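#struct-pred
JK: can someone run the complex with zinc ion? inputs below
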Amino acid sequence: MNFFHTNPTAIFLFLISLILLSYHSSAALESEVDDESEFTYTEGTGKGPKKWGQIEADWKACSNGKMQSPIDLLDRRVQVFPSLGKLKKDYKPAPAVVMNRGHDITVKWKGDAGKININGTDYKLQQCHWHSPSEHTFNGSRYDLELHIIHLSPTGEIAVVGIVYKYGHPDPFLSKLFHHIKSSGKEERDLGIINPGVIKFGSRKYYRYIGSLTVPPCTEGVIWTIVKKVRTVSREQVRALREAVHDGFEANARPTQQSDGIAVQFYTPTVNGGST
Ligand SMILES: [Zn+2]
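RT: done, structure tokens with the ligand placed:
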């Protein structure tokens, strides 16, 4: 065959079509296997947590940020702040959907599902999702699961409530969603009316600090409220969440970030009385 020797244009077109073909098939494979793989949780893949800040121009905070989450909550470093007050929570039942975002399972409320109030500002409940194992650690201890409840103020400020779980009795909220989680897909799936009030906090004690989103773009200025009480979740429930997300995202916890400059406040209802 001397076809290529005699026709440089043919060689050129042939190479171009090879490139297009390989690009097309890898793109197709990617959307089939994992269409959310812009970032991963595995170092050494080029897209792991240490590289997040280099993947997209507006993800720079992931590596340059000074108040990145999650962090280790060290009891000896927190300051007790009675003036923080009890977390004002006013949730109500509303229509919701579940979706598999590839890197996590998210429940999103479509109607008015209520709000929390921090320093006089209302933050409306938007969605919640799970990380396994937990992202925040308590005095260096990592737990089995962490729920993030995302709220938004009218001006776009983000307030997240985090609840951590260790293996034990099933979590009532996940029990309600169990079968939907198992069959969740990329498309939103109707859950009907979901009452966020079913999410149990179990304690009035909480940590408060200003940090960031724990996934790209790692946006800073997020108001974190981490409930002190470690609740329980069954192994089966965590397994269902891990099996539902895409391959490679079974563990979807960002490592804890440098927290030297971050002030962590702690609220407890009473000094001597409060067992909750
Ligand atoms: Zn999260």
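RT: quick notes.
The two ends are 82 Å apart (CA to CA).
The longest strand covers residues 121-131.
JK: thanks, will look after standup
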